[in-house]
């Protein structure tokens, strides 16, 4: 299957690294100087340790990390940034979310449903699904819901960075970070 630049491509199990599950790869023709800076990332997972791990991996690659415990909370956070982009209810008003990393199975609202709700509100930034059950049906549910890519747990950070680059994001390290949300409550 061929891809145009910046579009996801589902790889069959036989082509995807060492796993037997399909993965999603993004291809980009953008050069480094045209990649956009990732200022704010939203990490959505119902397991505190998973949120903490994702935040530790991402803390050097953005300015602000927000966390949500489920899809309902994530949709509410995105709604606030879209509804009032200059006065959000988080600790850092005015900064839109540039990337969402979201678990599949969560209480109250799962990842694909939350991704769909975000897209219905007009949210246009990339959404990357992260799941322990990378079945073809789960990948398709995330993509149909509006996710740009889906990654398996445990997370391969190099693959995440490749996808971010494929989506036109700058993955150079940052010097400062602000964290909003519950990542220390283990």
Give a summary of the structure in a few sentences:
This protein has 186 residues and is of the alpha/beta class. It has helices at 48-58, 71-83, 111-120, 136-145, 157-166; strands at 8-11, 23-26, 36-37, 40-44, 64-68, 99-103, 127-131, 149-152, 169-170, 178-180. The strands form three sheets. A six-stranded parallel beta sheet has the order 8-7-6-4-5-10, sandwiched between helices. A two-stranded antiparallel ribbon has the order 1-2. Strands 3-9 form a two-stranded parallel ribbon.
Question: What keyword list fits this structure?
Answer:
two-stranded antiparallel ribbon, single chain, alpha/beta, 186 residues, disordered N terminus, 5 helices, six-stranded parallel β-sheet
Which helices and strands appear, and what pairs or packs with what?
Blueprint: E1 8-11, E2 23-26, E3 36-37, E4 40-44, H1 48-58, E5 64-68, H2 71-83, E6 99-103, H3 111-120, E7 127-131, H4 136-145, E8 149-152, H5 157-166, E9 169-170, E10 178-180
Parallel strand pairs: 3-9, 4-5, 4-6, 5-10, 6-7, 7-8
Antiparallel strand pairs: 1-2
């Amino acid at each position: 299957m061929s891809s145009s630049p910046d579009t996801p491509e589902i790889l069959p199990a036989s082509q995807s690294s060492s796993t037997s599950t399909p993965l999603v790869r993004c291809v980009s023709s953008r050069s480094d100087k045209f990649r956009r800076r990732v200022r704010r990332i939203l990490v959505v997972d119902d397991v505190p340790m998973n949120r903490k791990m994702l935040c530790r991996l991402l803390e050097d690659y953005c300015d602000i990390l927000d966390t949500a415990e489920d899809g309902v909370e994530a949709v509410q956070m995105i709604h606030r940034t879209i509804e009032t982009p200059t006065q959000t209810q988080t600790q850092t008003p005015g900064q839109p979310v540039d990337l969402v990393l979201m678990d599949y199975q969560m209480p109250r609202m799962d990842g694909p449903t939350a991704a769909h709700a975000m897209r219905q509100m007009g949210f246009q930034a990339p959404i990357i699904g992260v799941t322990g059950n990378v079945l073809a049906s789960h990948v398709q549910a995330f993509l149909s819901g509006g996710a740009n890519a889906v990654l398996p747990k445990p997370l391969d950070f190099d693959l995440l960075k490749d996808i971010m680059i494929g989506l036109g994001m700058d993955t150079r390290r940052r010097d400062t970070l602000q964290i909003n949300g519950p990542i220390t409550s283990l």
